[in-house]
Design brief:
Number of strands: 9
Structural class: alpha+beta
Number of helices: 6
Radius of gyration: 18 Å
Low-confidence stretches: none
CATH architecture: 3-Layer(aba) Sandwich
Helix content: 25-40%
CATH class: Alpha Beta
Mean pLDDT: 97
Strand order of the largest sheet: 1-2-3-4-5-6-7-9-8
Number of domains: 1
CATH superfamily: Gcn5-related N-acetyltransferase (GNAT)
Order of helices and strands: EEEHHHEEHEHEHEE
CATH topology: Aminopeptidase
Bound molecules: coenzyme A
Length: 243
């Protein structure tokens, strides 16, 4: 029997790897990041249909960037899986501070084709967390305060980052990824109750994905930040758990 502490993750019978299966697209799964993903990120994160809408990944995106990224996200994902496996299987499922899955993969027969990434992490828009609108001066301090809140604290502000291979855009996949991740992992297993999502102005697809998942558009800041040499406006969307 599967370890109840892994609840709502499934186990790959062949490899023992955990995964989360999408609700509407059961052939698409979310798995932990794998080292073999390193070269697979590169074409997508250099494709303007993807990278123009992301603030995090550098451009041009190199193999070294990919190695650095996976070296940063893989250990915490592996640690949280181990932590879950080590927890008392007879106790109620524990609340954890990290999401163990990141890679979006399509199962095609015996193959699992890499399609993109999804993350839920503590919010990195501290400039928007103060009481008086945009406040760049206290950005770091606000993020540190949010990061200092204990695992499971319902007042933590989380954020979601996502991208998908252009070959699969517009099929409803990311809407399902976020619905599944929120409801089948983040809420029950991380205690997530409050999420901010941001999207550059003009990113209609991303805004729609969040709206379809119950997020509300809070504000739009024109000329908010320079990213990769270009001034960008930012939509802020918010989701709160309603029980
Ligand atoms: C934004 C992104 C994640 C959307 O993923 P997706 O799987 O294509 O989105 P979905 O198919 O679930 O679309 C949800 C809705 O948005 C619409 N939509 C998707 N892309 C759109 C676009 N470029 N313009 C307008 N509407 C769009 C869909 O038609 C759908 O609406 P409907 O249900 O009324 O038909 C994907 O386009 C992507 O990876 N973009 C590049 C990276 C990115 O922008 N990441 C988000 C950063 S904030």
């Amino acid at each position: 029997m599967a370890n109840p502490q892994l609840h709502l993750l499934e186990l790959n019978a062949k490899t023992g790897e955990v995964f989360l299966r999408l609700r509407k697209f059961p052939n698409i799964i979310l798995t932990p990041p794998r080292w073999e993903d390193e070269p697979l990120l590169i074409p997508y994160l250099n494709d303007p249909r993807v990278c123009d809408w992301l603030s995090g990944p550098p451009y041009p995106y190199t193999l070294q960037d990919s190695k650095d990224f996976l070296a940063r996200i893989k250990p915490p994902a592996d640690e949280v899986i181990q932590h879950l496996k080590d927890a008392d299987p007879a106790a109620a499922p524990i609340i954890v501070g990290e999401c163990p899955v990141w890679s979006i993969r399509e199962v095609r027969g015996s193959e699992e084709v890499f399609l993109g990434g999804i993350s839920i992490i503590r919010c990195e828009n501290g400039e928007l967390m103060g009481p008086n609108g945009v406040d760049w001066e206290n950005k770091k301090k606000r993020e540190e305060e949010n990061n200092a809140l204990a695992v499971g604290d319902p007042s933590i502000i989380w954020t979601i980052g996502d991208w998908l291979a252009p070959s699969h855009h517009g099929r409803g996949i990311m809407t399902d990824v976020i619905r599944t991740l929120l409801n089948d992992w983040a809420v029950p297993r991380m205690g997530v109750r409050h999420v901010w999502a941001t999207a550059f102005t003009g990113n209609e697809g991303s805004v729609k994905v969040f709206l379809k998942n119950g997020f509300k558009l809070v504000t739009t800041h024109e000329n908010h930040v320079v990213v990769k040499g270009k001034m960008r406006g930012l939509h802020l969307l918010e989701w709160q758990y309603e029980g």
